[in-house]
Inverse folding.
């Protein structure tokens, strides 16, 4: 009974989004939750039904007592059929194993991404302000910039394409 109360208070949508689960995993979990809810509903309906038959009532109501005697004999001889549920249990265990494997894979992915984000954050915190950088340091960090500037100087281009359009012409002449 306590599990029903806990399941009712769990926000599965938030869990799915916060864990970053894949669409396949989310679909499998939702299908499993639906089957479980349906099974619980059917079980509750069947458990609420009466399980005893009042044969004395039928004897008093019906004229043909032989029918009631035959029904009583059939009820006494009735043996419920037993089912082998091992196949279902194996399927559930397989599903559980897949879900656990996917969860571990997702956890590893999230841990790796978190480590990368923390390294990036540390890099941002340790970085010097843009104003304190020199052109040599920028050139060392991005050699393409140095190559582009050298090519422009060789070709005699002393202006950056698009600079005037973006910042305007500051020349006095």
């Amino acid at each position: 009974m306590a599990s029903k109360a806990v399941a009712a208070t769990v926000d599965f949508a938030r869990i799915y989004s916060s864990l970053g689960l894949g669409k396949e995993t989310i679909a499998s979990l939702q299908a499993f939750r639906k089957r479980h809810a349906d099974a619980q509903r059917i079980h509750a309906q069947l458990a609420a039904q009466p399980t005893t038959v009042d044969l004395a009532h039928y004897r008093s109501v019906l004229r043909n007592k032989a029918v009631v005697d035959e029904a009583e004999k059939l009820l006494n001889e009735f043996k419920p059929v037993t089912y082998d549920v091992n196949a279902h249990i194996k399927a559930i265990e397989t599903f559980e194993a897949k879900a656990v494997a996917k969860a571990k894979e997702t956890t590893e992915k999230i841990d790796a991404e978190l480590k990368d984000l923390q390294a990036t954050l540390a890099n941002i915190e340790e970085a010097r302000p843009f104003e304190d950088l020199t052109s040599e340091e920028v050139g060392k960090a991005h050699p393409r910039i140095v190559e582009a500037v050298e090519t422009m100087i060789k070709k005699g281009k002393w202006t950056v394409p698009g600079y005037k359009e973006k910042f305007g012409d500051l020349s006095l002449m």
User: Anything to note?
Assistant: The longest helix spans residues 86-126. The mean pLDDT is 85. Residues 163 and 169 are 8 Å apart (CA to CA). DSSP finds nine helices and no strands in the chain.
